[in-house]
Amino acid sequence: MFERTFLLTHQPRDTRWLFTLLGILIAMTAGWLIGNFGPLGALMTVGLPVGLLLLISILLEPKVGLFVYLNLSFMLGFTRFIQSDSPLGLAMDSTLMLTLLSVLLNAKRMDWKQLRYPVYFALVFWLLYTILELLNPEAPYRPAWFYHARAFSLNWFYMATIMLVMPIRKEDIRLIIKTWLIWSFLAALWGFKQQYIGLAEAEQRWLAEGNAKTHLLWGQLRTFSFYSDASQFGAEMASATLFSAIKFADEKRLVHKLIYLGLALVFFWAFAISGTRSAFFVLVAGFPSYLVLRRNMGMIVRGALVATPLLAILLFTHIGDSNYHIYRIRTALHPSEDASFLVRLENQQKLRAYLKHLPFGAGIGTSADTGARFSPNHFAAQIPPDSWYVEIWIETGIVGLTLYLLMLATMIGYGTYKVWQIKDPWLFKLMTILLANFIGITLMCYSNPTLSQFPTSTMLYIACILFTTCHRWDNVTEKSLEKVMA
């Protein structure tokens, strides 16, 4: 009797009406978005559920946020196709903040002792200095600080905190490298399409908005792919060339050798059509740095025997000058004959006189595009920096530039010390490549603001933490090392 009464009073309720109502509301919302925003509304209709899922995933696992941020860094250049900087730019900032929040929410799983490394202390010290720059009396418009502080110190500090405390495995490192190479390969293909097939309408519009003066030289297109500009594209392709060429030399299996050889050739030609001469120094500095880091005299001699004739041909001959891209690379080795380089030196002379009595600079946010936007009449905004280090010098003074260079030197020096202690052969080779690439990019930044631009900045933020704390993944003992070497 009791069972019959229970079944009669607890019949499952028909909830189909609820799902019907929910479906109608979703359809009405989608129709309203599409009707008012067009294609963007359609993207929002699809993107909102995906965004909600990503939000939950990132809060539950910060590693998801790291990889979403990494991929968004490569996608940022696509904003020229939707004529807006807000969707992806806002998504990137939100993703980084959410990932940092996730780290705090999952604090019990994080290893907070990892924040004791010298590299982190150097970043914190630089961050504090940039925060104090808010008090710089020379700054004409203080809110501009927030626009440049992200590239100067904030993003690097956030990423370092996440990378240090989060439990990262070797598989995660492999995935980071694969993600970088896949995006670089796609970028190279898109660059070839631009150079040999033609530009999309959005890309032509981007050139017409004022970018043609730097990307169309003597009737030749400086390929920029789906990155912010040709300089960023050239830097990425030079970095990928360096990585692939070294992997080609190190790999033992023929199949892997052929894959990396093919990638190296693709990336090198993509670098050539970018017309970014300064990116050549990623290779010029990166290869010798790698050879020295390996501490193998045989490799150094072989590398010198290969590199010396190639550099001699570029320096002392005119072989290949009929090809514009080869000629452009050659001019990088003759800066005294380059009119644009001489103009840069002249601008630096003017800045030296202006900054002579400003040891703390003109204030963060006073130069480059941000300065031109918020304080166009300020002296710092009227001279293009044309260099990442010059930009730091203008905005933070000789004191700030010195601190910044000391921070980079700390990363390179401490990274070298830690890399030389690694016993795992795979990890040692990978970390030496990342460190060599970091050295190459820091040299290139004398001529370009590459270190502040996506996706190179994101990759370097990640790489510097990897090679300065590489012992975390060095689980090879002396006995297992003997087996590997045998």
Features:
single chain; 486 residues; mainly alpha; two-stranded antiparallel sheet; globular; disordered N terminus
Description:
By secondary structure, this protein is mainly α. It folds into two domains: 16-110, no CATH class; 112-485, no CATH class. The chain is built from 21 helices and two strands. It has helices spanning 2-9, 16-37, 39-60, 62-75, 86-105, 118-132, 145-165, 170-196, 201-215, 230-250, 254-274, 280-294, 297-316, 324-331, 339-355, 368-374, 379-382, 388-419, 425-444, 456-468, 478-485, and strands at residues 216-217, 220-221. A two-stranded antiparallel sheet has the order 1-2. Helix 12 (280-294) packs antiparallel against helix 13 (297-316).
Offer a quick outline of the entry.
It is found in: Membrane. The protein is mainly α. The protein contains 21 helices and 2 strands.
Largest sheet: 2 strands, antiparallel
Overall outline: globular
Query: In what range is the share of β-strand residues?
Result: under 5%
**Could you give the count of β-strands?**
2
The parts where pLDDT drops under 50 for at least 5 residues are 1-15, 478-486
Helix content: over 70%
Rounded mean pLDDT is 79
Number of domain modules: 2
Order of helices and strands: HHHHHHHHHEEHHHHHHHHHHHH
- What is the number of helical segments per DSSP (H or I, 4+ residues)? 21
C-alpha termini separation? 79 Å
Strand order of the largest sheet: 1-2
